[in-house]
Amino acid sequence: MRASLYRLLPAVRSVIVGSLLLVLGGAVGFRIAGGATLPLANIVQRQVEYRLINTEQPPEVQDVEFSQFWEVWGILQQDYLDAARLNEQQMVFGAIRGMTAALGDPYTVFLPPELDQRTEEDLAGSFFGVGIELGYIDGTLAVVAPLKGMPADQAGVEAGDLILHVTDDVKGLDEDTQGWSLNQAVNNIRGSKQSTVTLTLFRSGNGGEPFAVNLIRDEIVIPSVELVFVEHDDKRVAHIQLSRFGERTKGEWDQIVAQILQQRDSVDGILLDMRNNPGGFFDGAIDVASEFIESGTIVTQQGKFTSRSFSAKGEAKLGRFPLRVLVNRGSASASEIVAGALRDRAGAELIGEQTFGKGTVQDRKQLDNGSGLHVTIARWLLPAGDSIQDEGVPVAIEVQDDRQTDQDEVVLRAI
What we know:
20 strands, 11 helices, disordered N terminus, single chain, alpha+beta, 5-stranded antiparallel sheet
């Protein structure tokens, strides 16, 4: 029996270096139309103009008054004290972020190129880094665990090592990590393939002296699906941990299903564990739900003008096994769709905590300069007609995991 019942460093709150920052919906296709030349103050008629001028502006946008925007732009360009801080590209990005923020929808967002690229990498399940799971120990950035076979693991980095300082000559980085957020740590430790980053570490019992480790970055592949067969009280249960719905999930999932079917005679049930699964690609949710549901609607997408229902694909390869679904407050979007559909269509018992409540669809649009725009275009309705948004999916059996213990109370309750 592995450790799906046990874990290391229970007090540490952690994320993989590459965890999803945004909960995403399916890609539907979206286009930003453009339009007539905008009235520019003389002071700003230069290079930035062509980036903001559109040529196919719809009639409903032509009457929008932009003069105040350009008035403020001109004042800043002319009067702002610290001219070195007037980065035109960043000012444009800030204006666009303000436009999306004004909608009051946390899921309609503008992502500058670097953040959009990271989101793409997260969904792809691969990126270039050193292969460590990050967290904090007593407020200090720490290694929760090195990923097996990755650069950090090969260099002898250990769980519990404190990361005190990061140096990267290519990035011009030479900083202590005190005060870094996890986002900053991810950005600074990631980099291009075969580039070098130096981590200054402190290890308890190592003589009290920090030491430096030079790591050469490589491609880090993080599986989105993992299978462990758990034996407990004369039962043998397939514990499937589904951490996201990414680009690699379908292939990984198919391999897991094949393993379970090969051992079908000795499997007493399935635990589908989607705790802390933030979502991902919508198609993956339909694929996973269809492994347990033979027919009927899995979810309905209610858009601005039309609605569309998505049905099971008629496979239900795992439909013969007793099923319980584990969720918590970190289960969102696509994982909520699957949990709700399995409850409504397959009679699955949901165990853990009520889910996050992210029931809207975001279209992901890549802009010309590498930036990204995520736009809410629809909401999800479960088979019983329930909306996920803000409410989440309630559980039948509420169990909270005590992270101060070595056992996983939710898994123990579900078996």
